[in-house]
Every structure is written in structure tokens, then in C-alpha cells.
Amino acid sequence: MTGENAARQSNGAVRRAGGTLFDGQSAEAQPVRVALDGRQLRVMSAQGEPILSLLSADIRLVPGGPPDTQRLRLPGSPEARLLIGTPGFIRALHDAGMPRPGSAVDRMKRLTLFVLALLSGFGAIFALAERGVPLIATGVAALVPETMETRISANIRGQLVRTAVASPGAVPPRACTAPAGSAALAKLARQIEAAGGPKGLKITVIDAALANAFALPGNEVIVFAGMLDLVQSPGELAGVVAHEAGHVAFDHPMRLMFAAGTRQLWQVFGMGSVEGTPVYGQVASALLDTRHSRRAEYQADAYAVSVLEEAGWSAEPFALLLRRFAAAAGDAEAQRSWIQSHPASALRADGVLALASDRPGAPPLETIEFLALKNICNSPEKGRLRLDPLGRPIEGSR
Amino acid sequence: MRQGNAVTGRETIGLDEGWGVPAPPPEAAAPAPEERKGPPPARRASAAAAFHGDLKTLAGHVTLNTLGNLVTLGLYRFWARTRLRTYFVNNISLAGYPVEYLGRGTELFGAFLIAAFLVSAGVGILTLLVLQDTGAAGGLSGYQMMLGVAFVLLIPIAHYRARYYRLSRISWRGLSLAQDGAALIYAVRAWVMWLAVILSLGVFYPQMRVALARYRWTHTLYGAARFHFEAEAKPLVGPWLGAMAVILPAVLVMLTAILAFAWEAASKTTALTITPMVRELIDLRFGLAALAFGAAWLALMAYIRYRVFEFRYFLSVLSVGSARFESRLPAGPVMAAWSTFALVMFIYFGLISLLAAFTQPLLAAPTAEILKVGGWSLVAIMAAVLFASLGIAFVAALTLNLFPRFVVLRHVCTTLTVQGADGLAAIQARRAGDRPDFGEGLADTLGLGRI
Predict the structure, then answer these.
(1) For residue A316, which of A374, A360, A370 has the smallest C-alpha distance?
(2) What are the chain A neighbours of B21 within 8 Å (beta carbons)?
(3) For residues A278, A283, A284 and A286, what is the CA-based torsion angle, rounded to 10 degrees?
(4) Angle between helical axes of B55-71 and A104-127 (0-180°, round to 10)
(5) Residues of chain A contacting residue B12, judged by C-beta atoms under 8 Å apart
(6) Within its chain, how far is the Cα of B157 from the centroid?
(7) pLDDT digits (tens, 9 = 90+) for B5-63
């Protein structure tokens, strides 16, 4: 063998070859000769004048491309490349210190890096879900002016109520304003306010069968008539209102709205690719959703306990009400609670009892006031279908 | 005539001829460089492109990407996209020299963070305005329309900016591509041209394509050399009208099918007067639906046929420095690849719909219903659904990258020739600092982040 390919070693490695150099400064393909001198790669012009001298360890093999040509990334310029068509020379370069991309050690390193990167990505998402989103939502919610909150509340109340009572042939629900009931409701609100509850609480009873209550932006609380039918004592009702007052106090409606917006954006951003990513975006969004709203429920429960006791009432009836919800729902609720926004009622009841003191409390309303409030819609004889908290009709409610 | 791959060194060409020729592989037993000196052969008039990718490597990339996306709930997509781009671009060689993708996942991720923050703030403020607007409870409010219009108007800006980044990361012969021009000017042109297309019921489409391609390509550079693009709409009008002759009737069939289903739904809830003709359409709705799918496929094929013609034409009027391009890309294989993809996507969305139909009641229905599902625990069902989703997503991703990306790219490369590439050697690099540090954030945020 003569010429540049002649310096061949026993393992097939050659220490000299021809190549093509792109210096990253022009598109000119410079024919070059390359030679390995120990760990140094010397690049010379076709005439043998030295052009470059590089350490083999600083050179990288670029993946892909024609199988019979190797592309080397040279240090110093992001686009300078050396093309070599002699496999033996590449072997010699590896021997001289150029990292082997295909080696087992390298593969393990890359796999480890990949797994680490994935784990940190997942950690970042978890941190975002746990801390980032609530933090952003709280900060942004605080910036929204009161007047805007009130207007938003007016808009979404209509939508919420329509959604809540959506069933074929449903009569559009009205707000109930029977004088005696309204007076009792006002008394309850006043007492909660006096016990350190949020100022300017606006409670509205909506004539709908759903056994539920909502807090809205702008200090508003909506109680559905179905909930009034379900509560068995003034203490239970006070618990429900105090819980919603807790949502108002923590500005949960706005905060959860912003958190929901963040999740929706995540879904939209998650759809950046057609390659199945929407699935992942939706899973992420669902995870964020349940975590935030569940935490808000526990927060509102704790708030309710402190307000109820501050007002001189007992939190026990509230826990009783939650227990009744749990009993009505059975095991199924516990099973499915992990994907739901509300935690299982049984767990909430335990939480309330754990926070409550044993001290007996006075009833928040006189029996006559309580009955007036239960009849605020004054329409039990109209044959309204009653629904339990899970939306099932209550037997004999018609 | 120098044929084949310049870097393989298989052709006999003198080193002092001025073309880079590495030494041949030892097993090729080609003469050593010293022995290959002699009179330089005739300068090559045209050189071919080639694609060297293999399916096994591609499948490996898709697998890793799917897993990465799953574990990070979609956050890995920037690195996934970069991995695929590197695979596809690095396996192309043009006129004998390999092309290279230089982009990094972190560049896409950084841009996403910036764009996501800005878009979130904008969307958040607009959403608040929408919510407090009294019109929100009823129809579309002014703000809602603003939100929609803002997204539509941002699309061409996002496209142009994404191209700015992508080109800056594609390198060949040691120089990268680049784009100048202003995204806003491009976007204004796009909005005007699209309006013209809509007002002309699609007839103006080739004019729009040419006008936008002209702006893009005349603002594209290879190193410091600017591309020239001398396209006119005239040669495209005939092929486009031919495509329209298929697309318009197909759209009519699809609209009729949609109307039939809409009427059927409306007749159940509202007191809609149903004429006998409408009744007949409603009765035929499933036949119409099948016909609509056939029509959609025909329309897709007609459109691809046009786009392939347009691609060949655009390349024939494109030049940079001394280099001109010619493509003999046949429409048939491209149509076949997209048909395969469409078929798999049809099955994919069918399965997704089934999954959704199966899981929706689980998540929304009263609790009692859940327990009726064959005695399965909910956790097991959710796990099964997640697993199934992953499988479906993987198959969809693999199909997308195989048909059309891999197959079409291979056809594009094997039918592409470059004339006068020799003269490109004189082209110098652009001055440093012209490269964007991040890219494609807006496009990704708007869901336009394609490979």
C-alpha cells in the first residue's frame, strides 16, 4: 500500500486519509489531507500545507447521512465540518480519543441523561401544579377589581344556574325572595359576618332541585333550593353557608377560575404537536384541576369550622350533613373521588370533626326562622323533583 | 460528468481540481490520492439529492419520543421534535454533500416559555373582558370575536417566525440558511391574500400561494447569497382549476351530509318544519356520510396533485447563486402516502372517539352507573384507557413519520437535481450574530408547531 491510506494499523484503523473541509466561512469544499499524530488531528491542504491542528477528544461525529461518509463537527466554529470517507480513519480517531456515540457506556450515559431529563421535567410539572399555578392564580386574582368581579359573577351565575338545572323541560329557575325566609337568610349572613366571615356576603337562593351551593366572584353565594330541602337543622345550613363563605374569603372563585384558565392554556399548549400530545395535555390538565379544587374544599371546610365556632355554634351538624352525603353516595364516591374536584364527603366529615371542639353550640337560627328559610321558595307543593348531591332523584320528592 | 456522491470519493477526480474529495474507503480499493491526479474531468452540470434514512432508526426515535411525551405530559415535545428533525435533515444529502440540522430542544423550549407567558397574559386579560362583558351570556361578544380574530391574525406571523428559526438551523457545506424580511409585512400580505381567496371562493388560491412563496423565498438566504424566485401564478391556474373541479363538488357533498345530520338533530328538539326533500336527505344521512368520506378523500387527492405540481414549478423558478433546481416528483407516491396516512388517522380518530365515548360517562355520570361497568374498578379502567391512548398515540406518530414524512421526503430527494452547484463555492457566510437564539415559541403556543 502506498499513499495516505497506507499507514494502516492492525485493527483496520488508518492514520492518514483524504477529506473535505468546510470551514464555516464559505461554501467552498476544500480538499484536504488528514493525519493523526498521537491524539492530534492535523488537517492539511492538498498540497500539504497545514490548516488546522485539533485534539481528537474535541471532535464529534454527527449522526445520520450517507453510510459511506462520516461527518465530523470541529471545535471553534459551529458549522465547520470535515467529511471523511475512510472508515478506518474514523476508527483511528476514536482510538485517539474522539467519543464513540455507539458505545455501550455512551448509550448508558445518554439513557441516564434522558431519564434524568424526563424526571426533572415531570418534577417541574408537579412543582408547577402544586405551587406555581396556585401562586399565579392568587396573585392575578388579587389584581381583578371588585366591580369587574361583580360583573363576571352576574354573567357566570346565569350560565351556572342553567347548567345546574339542565334537564329537558326545566322551568328557568328564579331567585326565591319570600320575606320571612329572606329575613332569616339575612340574619344568618349577618351572624357569619360578625364571626369574622367575609364582609358584604350576598346569598341568593335559586329555585332549583339541585342539592348544592356555589360561591361566585364578587362575594356571592348561590344556594339551590334542593340544598334547603336536604338540610335537617339550622346548624347544617349554617355549615353549608360558612363553607361557601370560606370560598369567598379565600377568593377561591376567581383563583380557581384563573387556575382553570391556566389548565386550559396548558391543554392548548399541549396540543402543539399532532403526535398524540393532546392526550398528555388533557391528562396534565385533569391532574391540575383535581388537585387545586380539592385543596380549596378542605380550606373552605377549615374556615367554616372556625367561623361556626367563633359564632358560638357547633361544627358537628356540618359534619353530620357531610356524613349523610357520604352514606348516600356509598363506596362509589370514595372510589371515584380521586378524579373528582370534590374530595370524598366522608373524608371531609372526618376533617371537620378533627378540627371542631367538643363544646356544644347554640342553634344559628330559631326553628321558626329555619322553617321560613326552608320555605323561601314557597313551592314544595309544585311537585319539584328533588335531587341528591349526586344528581339522582330522591324518592317521594315529587 | 461527476455522478453520485461527492463525499463518497468513489468518482475519480483530482484533488487539485477544487472539489473536495475525501479518500475512498480502503475496501473500495480505489487509487490513492497521489495516483488520482490528472486532468480534471468535465464540470458536473447537475447533481442529485439523496435520502439515507432507515426505518429502524426512525421507529426508535418515535418510541423514545412517545415515552418522553408521556412521562412529561407533553413537555418533552421540543426535544422530540428536534430529534426527528435531526434524523430527517441529517439524512438528506444535496449535490453530494450532507445537510445538517443544528437546532436544539432547549431553544424551542425557551421560546415556548416566553411565548406561553405573553400569550397567557394576553388571553387572560381578553378572557376577563369577555367574562365581564354582558354579551357573554348570549351570543358572541365583541371581546370574544377579538380573541378569535387575534388568534387567526397571529397564525401567519407565527409561521414566518418559525421559518426564520428553522432555516437558521439548517446547514449545508458549512453555511446555514437564513431568512430576513418582516413577519408583520408577511402577515399583512397573508391576511389580504387569504381574504381575496375567500371572496373569490378559492379561485385566487394560486395567486396567494405565489405571492406568499415569493415573499418567503426572496427573503431567504444561503450564507450571504439571496435566493431568487421568479414564479407567476399563470402556470398554476390551470392545475388549480382542475383541482377545484374535484374539491368544490366534494365540499358540497360533505356540507350536504353535515346538514342532513344537523337537520336530524334539530328535528328532535325543535319544532322545525321538515319538507319532504329534507326528510329524504335525513333518511339518506348514513349513505351521505359514507359518500362524504369518499368525497373528502378525492378532494385531498386533487389537492395533493396540485401541490405536487406547484412544488415542481416553484423549484424550477428558484435559484441561488449559480444553482438551479429541478424536481421530477411524481404525484402518485405522494398521494399513496397521504392516503395511507388518512386511512390510519381515520381509524385513529375512530378509536379515540370510542375511548372517549367509553370514558366520558365514567367521569361524568352519576356514581351508580360506574359500578355497572363489568365489575371493573375505576382505577383499572383508567389505567387501561391511558395504556390504550398511549398505544394509539404511538401508532399515529409512527404512521405520520412513516407516511407521509419518510416516504414523501425520500421521493422528494430521489427526484431532485441541482444544476450549477459548483458555483456555490464562492458564497460566503453571513456576518455573525444573525441567528436567533430561540425559535418557534409563538407557533408552538398556537398549536402550529409542526416538524
Answers:
(1) A360
(2) 18, 20, 31
(3) 120
(4) 30
(5) none
(6) 16
(7) 433 333 333 333 333 344 333 333 333 343 333 333 334 457 889 999 999 999 999 88
